[in-house]
């Protein structure tokens, strides 16, 4: 739960500072931060602004206007669908996907697949918290992955 972090402006600024430092040090050229619905929006938009780049949302089905790419995926408790606008990213553009938490990896994996369909270059999947025992990062295969905090 990142709610206490969001309530504390000093802690939240420190979080965005850490993420900004990591992304700047790791990737000299990046086009977009892609945030996952919905907590990824809370982290991704200030990070994108700090980096001076755009933000692209990946949303639950039916929330985005215009033409979209959609993917259905399994969750531990059922199925879900994610969408991205078809023109959100051009082929070859470099992106970092951001969310608050990586558990089983289903949502992050689905979002990565959407971006691959648009022919984006995924530089990294980035989260605040990783639940290592659930092995979600293994689903990402060869996509680089980074988490600030890890819990077994």
Please give a structural write-up.
The protein is built from four helices and seven strands; from the N terminus they run H-H-E-H-E-E-E-E-H-E-E. The model has no long low-confidence stretch (mean pLDDT 96). It has one domain: 3-Layer(aba) Sandwich (Rossmann fold). A hairpin with a 2-residue loop joins strand 3 and strand 4. It has helices at 3-7, 9-26, 39-51, 106-117; strands at 32-36, 54-60, 68-75, 78-85, 94-102, 121-131, 145-151. The protein has 152 residues and is of the alpha/beta class. A seven-stranded mixed beta sheet has the order 3-4-2-1-5-6-7, with helices on both faces. The longest helix has 18 residues, at 9-26. It is an enzyme of class 2 (transferase).
The number of helical runs is: 4
Identify the CATH architecture.
Answer: 3-Layer(aba) Sandwich
Query: Can you list the strand order of the major beta sheet?
Result: 3-4-2-1-5-6-7
- Sum up the overall morphology in one term: globular
Number of domains: 1
Average pLDDT over all residues: 96
Instruction: Point out poorly predicted stretches.
Output: none
Distance linking N and C termini: 16 Å
Strand content: 35-45%
Provide the succession of SSEs.
HHEHEEEEHEE
CATH-derived topology: Rossmann fold
Largest sheet: 7 strands, mixed
Tell me the Rg in angstroms: 15 Å
Binned, the helix content reads 25-40%
Structural class: alpha/beta
The overall strand count is 7
Classified by CATH, the class is Alpha Beta
Function: Catalyzes a salvage reaction resulting in the formation of AMP, that is energically less costly than de novo synthesis.
Catalytic activity: AMP + diphosphate = 5-phospho-alpha-D-ribose 1-diphosphate + adenine
EC number: 2.4.2.7
Subunit structure: Homodimer.
